[in-house]
Design a protein that fits this description.
Layout (H helix, E strand, L loop, with lengths): L1 H26 L2 E9 L2 E9 L7 E7 L2 E8 L5 E3 L2 E3 L1 E6 L4 E8 L8 E7 L79 H27 L1
Length: 227
């Protein structure tokens, strides 16, 4: 009896282990993906492991509308480095943003399909060029005001000395000249010449004239007496 119980238990355990062994490969589908900025690039990494064999699985990777990968694979998909499987890496321009889409179709059932979308912003900030407008300097020169001082014209009017009219006194009637009788001896004494302050030549001529006049008068008187 005990042996039968142990036998039944052993059969059940074996069946359970067998079912687990068969189910393990199917349930171990492991997709791994990521996207990030690395320095000035947008970098996408994808690794697929433990899928059903037979090279019937497919993977489609896009960057927007650009196809980066469209392949079939078996149990694993990536880059084999020695004994280790590394993710496949895709680099894109870092000056713009990116939208990466990953679509994995498993050959052993739709429940193992994998779809993922990764977005990255621009990894490089655009350099902002600041254009400085030249400063327009407007120099306004004020007009020079030239002030010409008025010329002061001083007119000096010559004062006219008041004319003094010297009215000549009316000449009285000439009294008859009385010629004194000649002194005895027949000579008339000469009258002294008046000092007029004229030049010597004028005085000399005046004296000669007076002498001549006196001689003429004397001669006239003698002729009259003798008549």
């Amino acid at each position: 009896m005990a042996s039968r119980v142990l036998g039944a238990f052993a059969v059940a355990a074996t069946a359970t282990l067998a079912s687990l062994a068969l189910a393990t490969p199917a349930s171990a589908h492991t997709p791994v993906s990521s996207a990030e900025c690395v320095k000035d690039k947008a970098v996408l990494k994808v690794k697929l492991t433990q899928y059903a064999g037979g090279n019937k699985n497919t993977v489609l990777i896009k960057d927007g509308d650009t196809v980066l990968a469209d392949e079939k694979f078996g149990q694993n998909w990536g880059v084999q480095v020695g004994n280790k499987l590394e993710p496949k890496t895709f680099e894109a321009d870092g000056t713009v943003g990116h939208t990466f889409t990953i679509k994995v179709t498993a050959s052993d059932g739709k429940q193992y399909n994998y779809e993922k979308t990764h977005t990255t912003p621009p990894c490089v900030k655009p350099t902002t060029t600041t254009t400085t407008k030249p400063v327009e300097t407007t120099t306004t020169t004020p007009p020079v005001e030239t002030t010409t001082p008025p010329v002061e014209t001083t007119t000096v009017s010559e004062s006219t000395a008041p004319s003094t009219s010297v009215s000549e006194e009316p000449s009285s009637s000439e009294a008859p000249s009385t010629t004194p009788a000649p002194a005895p001896g027949g000579s008339t004494p000469d009258e002294p010449l008046a000092s007029t302050g004229a030049a010597p030549m004028v005085m000399l001529l005046s004296g000669v004239g007076l002498v001549g006049a006196g001689a003429g008068t004397l001669l006239f008187l003698r002729r009259r007496r003798s008549a």
